[in-house]
């Protein structure tokens, strides 16, 4: 069947081909002046040397849209405006209503998709950048899985490298029991900062740390045991954050930097064999094409430092080779902040030059901006340090608890706790996902928890309100096959929004621009509010009543599904 956009697109594509003599994308989109418009006549006319309005008229005649459109016109320089027949909208809405996937079929050919996200660093507090990565990555996982792809989650934990020398020495200094106690309550900052302070202040400690790194890299069993302890305690803390955040990451998804240790030498050997390795100032480097520094000199990706050690880039090369060749993925997503954009561009180019990354496989850096505080600077705690993420999440839930108690004092305590969690955590996620991810966003509890505006609570409340219509009317939710009738303008607007869901999901799964899904849900909720103001539902006569209940049901399911793709729960009552 398809969405109205797809149906009109198909029809017009044929018409364009007849008129123009070659395939043309009709560029159908929602319109301010009609239901849909096509702007493609302008470009075609230019190529043909004809008047755009004449081309538009010829296309419209060839398309014979009578069965679909009740009105068509050519406007302005040559836009084709189309208004659908109400019966067509009703029929399409009914078909979507009867589909538990809301018109979004699983993809015909599932891909293996690796999503690299979250990736905090062991024995160090997660910062708001890791929070963003976790939230955006989780949404990427959900939408990709929902479309039927095979998704492999990779939490590329920073669990290896020089800082471990100092961390292990500090652990030995304070004793294992004390260290474990500090780390298990999530006091990662205290632990890390103390180690760092000693490292910076004492040459003796610095020297011990250096020797410890050598032992660690040399596979010394006693050192490895201490390292494992540090990693295990941190993982436990990170899992706590993930559980409160309600994201899909589990322990099995932790495949940290250390997991690639055994591959590093062979990656370098392969790069060497391919002739991609060059020695520069004692280090082994690759110089991926197209990257130059400020001085115009080619930029190196250092794969083996002059002291023989491997670094961040080497690990990422091993990881990308593993994901493409061993795991057989055809789509790689790296959800990491914008400061690492160039790093990933260089890693991808190197992987291409090595032949690991080749079509149809593709790799994309899903970058994002910073989280700012009210002062416009990167978000910090009142004391000026890194914010403890669990505290941030707890505060959101606390505030939501108060807001819910005020809004609905009748709600029983059990439901209230559940709703408060959905609202508090949902608010944080939505504030993040509803802004263009490339932009910085300001962390503002009051705004994100408001029941008005483009927020999670607003959408969750809109959803719960629709569910309450069914409760009040004693009607079982779900679509019973009633014909959907589109009469009132508000019904038409609502139907058009509902029918746009599949196209939005398709676009977002490609670009991972979740603000487009968020904006869509907001527009849908707004269209529903107008509909509900103008069109009585429970009090309407049949067959209107059933038809409107079907629209209510479909709206509720679309809101819940859409929020679900963003990782946000939609309680039935709040
Ligand atoms: N641990 C890194 C950091 O905190 C992020 C790792 C991102 N993933 C990757 N494959 N490099 O900045």
Automatic annotation (TrEMBL):
E.C. code: 6.1.1.19
Domain DALR anticodon binding: from-to ranges: 459-574
Motif position, 'HIGH' region: 120-130
Keyword list, A-Z: Aminoacyl-tRNA synthetase, ATP-binding, Cytoplasm, Ligase, Nucleotide-binding, Protein biosynthesis
Domain Arginyl tRNA synthetase N-terminal: 6-84
Presence of the UniProt keyword Cytoplasm in the record: yes
PROSITE patterns listed in its UniProt record: AA_TRNA_LIGASE_I
Subcellular location: Cytoplasm
InterPro entries in the record: aa-tRNA-synth_I_CS, Arg-tRNA-ligase, Arg-tRNA-synth_N, Arg-tRNA-synth_N_sf, ArgRS_core, DALR_anticod-bd, Rossmann-like_a/b/a_fold, tRNAsynth_Ia_anticodon-bd
Pfam families hit by this protein: Arg_tRNA_synt_N, DALR_1, tRNA-synt_1d
Reactions that this protein is recorded to catalyse: tRNA(Arg) + L-arginine + ATP = L-arginyl-tRNA(Arg) + AMP + diphosphate
Main location: cytoplasm
UniProt keyword Cytoplasm present: yes
Source domain of life: Bacteria
GO MF: arginine-tRNA ligase activity
Signal sequence residues: none
Family membership: Belongs to the class-I aminoacyl-tRNA synthetase family.
Oligomeric form and interacting partners: Monomer.
Name of this protein: Arginine--tRNA ligase
Source species: Nocardia fusca
Organism ancestry: Bacteria, Bacillati, Actinomycetota, Actinomycetes, Mycobacteriales
Gene name, Swiss-Prot/TrEMBL: argS
